[in-house]
């Protein structure tokens, strides 16, 4: 699928969520942040809203679970029809089992890492996964400044993913904009989440295309 741009929905109101999706027709998928006031100090939306979004759009739904106990809750998001379900490794008690449960329900199995979590301890797990999400801000809030100290981790993750030979998406999330996306693409990311850069733009769909062009021009990796 090559370079993928996933706008991150900002709204908490269902009508506004639908408007945001309609405003980014060129997007490769829609990134949905699920937060529970426990894993992160913020609360967004949960399974019932994702089930409603599934009925409202054919777009690929890329779910990012910033929640405690993902082993318990994540499989339901796959059953709801999300194409991709990402849990935080810091919150999972059995990441391999959870990844297998997600795949068994037809979703891509994603594993996210907070900025302080290294990738190396998980090198042997990568073959169980379809997506690795490297957070480029502390999870919890949109609109934060991109942490460029994450670039070495991104490069290292790309090396490890290439060594598997498998089609595992390498996603970045947090502070991604026309100013920062090139550095992430050069470091090996192929999937880009952007919230404020897209929905804060005068023309969100044009910004999706700008981000894709910029990433494509600097891509170290695109299948
Ligand atoms: O939720 C987030 C952090 O938890 C992300 O930063 C959000 O998905 C994207 O927002 P922005 O592009 O404004 O950083």
Mean pLDDT: 97
- Strand arrangement within the widest β-sheet reads 1-8-7-6-5-4-3-2
Kindly provide the radius of gyration, computed on alpha-carbon positions and rounded to a whole number of angstroms.
Answer: 16 Å
- Per DSSP, the total helix count is 8
The sequence of SSEs as H and E is EHEHEHEHEEHEHEHH
- Basic shape: globular
Report on the architecture of this protein.
Its EC number is 5.1.3.1. It is an enzyme of class 5 (isomerase). Keywords: Carbohydrate metabolism, Cobalt, Isomerase, Manganese, Metal-binding, Zinc. Belongs to the ribulose-phosphate 3-epimerase family. The protein is α/β, with parallel strands linked by helices and 223 residues long. The chain has a single domain, classed as TIM Barrel, CATH 3.20.20. Helix content is 35%, strand content 18%. It has 8 helices and 8 strands, in the order βαβαβαβαββαβαβαα. Strands 1-8-7-6-5-4-3-2 form an 8-stranded parallel beta sheet. α3 packs parallel to α4. The chain is globular, with a radius of gyration of 16 Å. The model has no long low-confidence stretch (mean pLDDT 97). The structure holds ribulose-5-phosphate (5RP). Ribulose-5-phosphate (5RP) binds next to β2, β8 and α7.
